[in-house]
Amino acid sequence: MKANDLLVLANRNLWRRKGRTILTVLGMTIGTVSVIVLFSLGIGLAEWQRVSMEQWGSLNIITVSQAFFYPGMPEEERDKLRLLNEQAVSEIEAMPGVLGVAPAFTVGGEARKGRERGYLQLIGIEPGKMALMEFEPKAGRLLHDEDRYNVVAGAHVINNFMQLGRPGPAAVIGPPAGRDSLELLDQRLVLTLQNARGQKRRYTLNVVGILGPQFAERAHSVYAPLSLLREMHNFINQGAQPAQVHLVEPVNRQRDQAAGLQRVRRRERLELQYSFASVRTKSVEYTKQLGEELRQMGYQAHSIADQLEGIEQGTRTVQAVLGGIGAISLLVATIGIINTMVMSIYERTREIAVIKVLGASFSDIRGLFLTEAALIGLLGGILGLVCSFLLSLLINIYAGAAIGAGAMGPEAPPVRISVIPLWLTVFALAFSTTIGLIAGLYPATRAMRLDPVTAMRHY
Amino acid sequence: MAILALRDIVKKYRMGDSIVTALDHLSITVEDGEFVTVSGTSGCGKTTLLNIAAGLERPTKGEVRFRNVALNKLKEKDLVLFRRKFMGFVFQGYNLLPALTALENVALPLVFAGIARKERLARAMQALELVGLADRCRHKPMEMSGGQQQRVSIARALVNRPKIIFADEPTGNLDTRTSAEIVAHLKEAAKRDRQTVVLVTHDSNIAGIADRIIYMSDGRLVDE
Asked: Which of helix, strand or coil describes residue A385?
């Protein structure tokens, strides 16, 4: 018997009992829908988490800083500690998967803006590396190489300022606390720093750009040229006590026994040590891998991608649970197909005997019933796919908008919480057909083994 | 030359606790091109004889030879080939597939034989013409009378141009006149192509048109 004849005959047989076939297909449809939709929710969840992590910070940037030294630290850990200096930066830059390293100094202090006063967290960066580190201005511009006292402010810095003598809005993470960040553009900020000797120095800074909303972790900082920050750092550290310095200078104590030498060396080192460095990687995979390597090397390193790992693990568990629930309804549908096929064989016992006498072989008969079962599976799969896309659309329109608004404020774009990728489409069709085939295996074997003479007596 | 030879056939069935002997040391030889009827009372073993001769059942003892091949020793796979190539079968209850038209029903054996659609429909049409039903080829079995259905069934048995046709009470559900017509059709078709027919019936009128009549009683041959 030829394959296309088999297909035509199986299809004809299937529609002799329209009602029963439709009901069985419906069962398979529901099974497929539950699997696809629950899977799509799992996938949507993972993608949504990734998007919201990216709003917090770049997945391609690792923040590296020196590990802390503390008294009583184990010997082997202390020996591993590394200084974050010029040499370290070029070492990190040479690692595979690194696109660039931007070392940074940080300085904090009180600043005035006209009649307002507020705390400033100032971060120095080489102006040429801002674009590489995925800085994007919402208004104004990023820093240029010739900038000296020009700065770029994060979107929420404005909320740090308040009128003298009047309480202002508290700085919050997340939705903006009222004031327009563009208020700060082209403003002058006067920063006053004090060093350990009690000397004061004032810096007047011009805000030339405001950062966009993309990375929340940058929203509260002001970015200035690295050279300016180096200068500020040096000023602040003048007259710093050796005890304070000691915490950041752990290496080679035995070799530097001469007290004078020790102090000079520490001073030198201090000036060269960066507060932290941002490492731009090629991809999230490199971010995860390099973060681990940098920690092995003795630095502190963290990135948004580290948290992603843990969250992804949670997501996988959720996906497995959702998939499991879907699989149960698919199992019920499978039993439905088996039942339908067994019923069909009872009804057609005589017919099976007749076609055996007319020359149908064992494999013809088995093929006929397997094809019928597979067709039920395939039809259920196609119908289920169509229903799944509709359901997924509805979920995204209604539930997605509600969740998006709840998580990220009323203006947030609707979240696609149900995502059906192409592979899921193909997989669903192949899977439902296979399920049909498996379901048909037992009934088809029964039909094949029917003895024609006994079956002929069956009415 | 004998086309079919049954030698010393014994067939026993288990019916509950007792064992029933349906055929008791029976021997028959059918010549090529012969039209043979098997007659006897109900339960005398006619149908069992036919089933064994057609290779649908295996005898408990004895040998069934079709030409030089022992059917009772063939494997299922080879029996399927024998049915496709050499055998036609007419059932008592017509047993047409209700979902298929007359033409498709006649073409069904050729479907299993793997013959292409165009050729098998042409051959099925010829077979329908042979039984005088070419004009009803698009009708479903439910839309035809019993006599017409049985003629379609005969066309189905002829379509693969078999060497031997087995018919099990083909007129059992039909009135006398239609029965005579049906058997006449079968005989006419068989004589044209020198086909052998073994027909089981309890109707003595029909048995009368045969070349040879075999009478059976209690699983034994009583008369020829």
From this structure: helix
> Across residues A180-201, what is the average pLDDT?
85
Going by pLDDT thresholds of 50, 70 and 90, the confidence category of residue B29 is: very high
The larger pLDDT score, comparing residue B85 to residue A249, is at B85
Residue B58 forms contact with A (CB below 8 Å)? no
ipTM, interface predicted TM-score of the complex: 0.91
Does A338 share its domain with A407? Answer: yes
Within an 8 Å CB–CB cutoff, is residue B141 touching chain A? no
Q: Are residues A185 and A199 in the same domain?
A: yes
Domain count, chain A: 2
pTM of the predicted structure, to 2 decimals: 0.71
Give residue A248's pLDDT band: very low, low, confident or very high (50, 70, 90). Answer: very low
CB contact under 8 A, A357 and B83: yes
pLDDT classification of A134: cutoffs 50, 70, 90: confident
Q: What is the DSSP letter of A297?
A: H
If asked whether residues A258 and A319 sit together in one domain, one would say: no
Handedness of CA A211, A217, A223, A227 (dihedral sign): negative
* Amino acid at residue number A373: A
* Tally of structural domains, chain B: 1
Of B111, B117, B118, B153, which to mutate for an interface test with A (greatest number of A Cβ within 10 Å)?
B111
Residues 6+ apart with CB under 8 A from B4: B28, B29, B30, B53, B64, B65, B66, B164, B196, B198
Indicate if A132 and A147 belong to the same structural domain: yes
Residue among B57, B83, B97 minimizing CB distance to A359:
B83
Buried/exposed code over A346-355 (b: 16+ C-beta within 10 A; e: otherwise): eebbbbbbbb
Q: Do A12 and B99 touch (CB under 8 A)?
A: yes
Give the number of A-B residue pairs with CB atoms closer than 8 Å: 55
pLDDT at A315: 85
The predicted structure's pLDDT at residue A412: 55
- Cβ proximity of A55 and A215 under 8 Å: yes
pLDDT at res. A255: 45
Domain co-membership, A164 together with A283: yes
- The range of the structural domain enclosing residue A402 comes to 3-56+311-456
